[in-house]
Write a structure and sequence with these properties.
Elements lengths: L1 H7 L3 E6 L4 H12 L4 E6 L3 H9 L5 E3 L26 E2 L23 E4 L5 H11 L6 E5 L5 H6 L11 E2 L1
Parallel strand pairs: 1-2, 1-3, 5-6
Antiparallel strand pairs: 4-7
Length: about 170
């Protein structure tokens, strides 16, 4: 792996990631394995853009995700390692939202919500829509965003929920 070779030479390690909480753990693991490496992180959406950057030699490695039903197009000279077969989808809502303090939330409990969807994410809106329809809920995508951190202040203000995010499991 190109990234491991660069890290072993105490070089700058250029990694990319989609916006995810997993990148922090990945950085810790890399630091433990290659203490002299100097990682830099480039956060980008969609995953296909990161894969193209690895193929072009602009990144040494990238942490990407594949939405169900939206397969990644892997460039010929990029090697893929599956770290997690299925990534759990999480729900993020404001602390005062009616479902905020529940241990489990059914999609039906959110039937009247207008969802915040990241339009740059590979298939996020379609995947959420498919899950909502399977639960008997008609999707209402009221807010489209093109910058992943955008919904955080909106959720805190009680605006629409978003998925995937980082707080309660659905």
């Amino acid at each position: 792996m190109r990234a491991a070779a660069r890290a072993e030479r105490n070089a700058q390690l250029r990694i990319g990631s989609t916006p995810t909480h997993a990148v922090a753990r990945w950085l810790r693991l890399l630091s433990d394995r290659f203490p002299e490496a100097q990682p830099t992180v480039h956060v980008e959406m969609p995953s296909h853009a990161l894969l193209r950057m690895v193929a072009a030699g602009r990144l040494d490695a990238a942490l990407v995700h594949e939405m169900e039903g939206w397969p990644l197009r892997i460039p010929a000279d990029v090697r893929l390692r599956v770290l997690l077969e299925r990534d759990p989808q999480l729900l993020s809502v404001a602390a005062h939202h009616p479902v905020a303090h529940r241990k489990a939330v059914r999609l039906q409990d959110l039937a009247d919500e207008r969802w915040t969807i990241d339009k740059t994410a590979d298939g996020e809106g379609e995947t959420l829509g498919r899950a909502l329809r399977a639960a008997g809920v008609t999707p209402q995508h009221g807010h489209l965003r093109d910058h992943p951190p955008t919904p955080i202040p909106a959720r805190c203000a009680g605006r629409p929920p978003s998925a995937p995010a980082t707080s309660r499991r659905m």
